[in-house]
Amino acid sequence: MILVLDDDAVIGKCLLRIIKKKNKTGQLFNNAIEAVKVLETEVPEMVFMDVFLTGPDGFTFLNELASYPDTMNIPIVIVSEKDFSSYDLSEYNVVATLNKNMMKPEDVAEIIDRCTDKK
Q1: Sign of dihedral through CA atoms 117, 42, 108, 82?
Q2: Across all residues in the chain, what is the average pLDDT?
Q3: What is the pLDDT of residues 73-99, one digit of tens each?
Q4: Which residues pair with 3 in a beta bridge?
Q5: I need a labelling partner for 35 at 20 to 30 A (CA). Which of 21, 25, 52, 71 fits?
Q6: Are 40 and 56 in contact (CB under 8 A)?
Q7: Domain, as residue range, for 94
Q8: Model confidence over 42-54: pLDDT tens digits?
Q9: Is residue 117 part of a domain?
Q10: How confident is the model at residue 103 (pLDDT cuts 50, 70, 90)?
């Protein structure tokens, strides 16, 4: 399962559509609190997320992931209007950043291929 954390429903649904085309399952959450709850029962294969969310921000979620051995190595992709490409986010296992205004479906698909088992 690929977790999508974004309070922009349009972006979230677009990401889910691409995930489905890659024969993966996805779950969309619009806030960090609900996304953390799913971690109690399932460890996602990877996460696409915005960091600017309603309620607790995405860094709260990233800190939660980084604090547990079974979730600290999940590949994270930051999807934001802000350019995070010059930030060192390796402590959160961020493998890529995508700009919401410039990303293309093939960018998302390529990252999924690179970071997940392609079976």
Answers
A1: negative
A2: 93
A3: 999 999 999 888 778 888 899 999 999
A4: 27, 47
A5: 21
A6: no
A7: 2-109
A8: 999 999 999 999 8
A9: no
A10: very high
